[in-house]
Write a structure and sequence with these properties.
The chain has 143 residues and is mainly alpha-helical. 61% of the residues lie in helices and 7% in strands. It starts with 10 loop residues before the first helix and ends with a strand. The model has no long low-confidence stretch (mean pLDDT 93).
Length: 143
């Protein structure tokens, strides 16, 4: 089914999914960032500088999101809220470069809130990072 024929997810559903995702990503970051840094600190009694720790967080989150979006178009939160990310062109999960672009664009879009507010003026009610990366968030009908 093409992306244009699929039902786009509403703004409220996407925002609720993002809130739930923010809770779930804490578990991913705990496993990929906090635990290794705690072990390094305890064993070798050193700590990463602040910039390196933030870079580690961004890379760990990026690996999680890009992998999940490319693999199935969904993270765990998106499965719960019955949503999927698809490429505009073919309605399939985004390629790795497209998923990476979406991830990189999502940071400023979400942190400044401008990209979220964009949905209120966008003709398809898509967030700015989806519009710019060529992706869409669609609803998955219940089974």
């Amino acid at each position: 089914m093409s992306a244009t024929a699929q039902h786009l997810a509403g703004i409220r559903r996407r925002l609720a999914g993002m809130l739930y995702e923010s809770l779930l990503i804490l578990g991913v970051l705990s496993a990929l960032v906090l635990l290794p840094n705690l072990l390094i600190g305890v064993i070798w009694q050193v700590a990463m500088p602040g910039w390196a720790l933030w870079l580690n967080v961004a890379l760990a989150a990026g690996l999680y999101f890009v992998y999940q979006w490319h693999r199935s178009g969904q993270t765990l939160a998106m499965k719960t809220w019955r949503m999927r990310i698809v490429a505009n062109a073919d309605g399939q999960p985004p390629s790795v470069p497209r998923a990476l672009l979406r991830y990189l664009l999502a940071w400023p879009s979400v942190l400044t809130v401008v990209g979220l507010l964009w949905a209120f003026v966008d003709r398809d009610r898509q967030f700015l990072h989806d519009r710019l990366s060529g992706t869409r968030v669609i609803s998955i009908p219940p089974r």
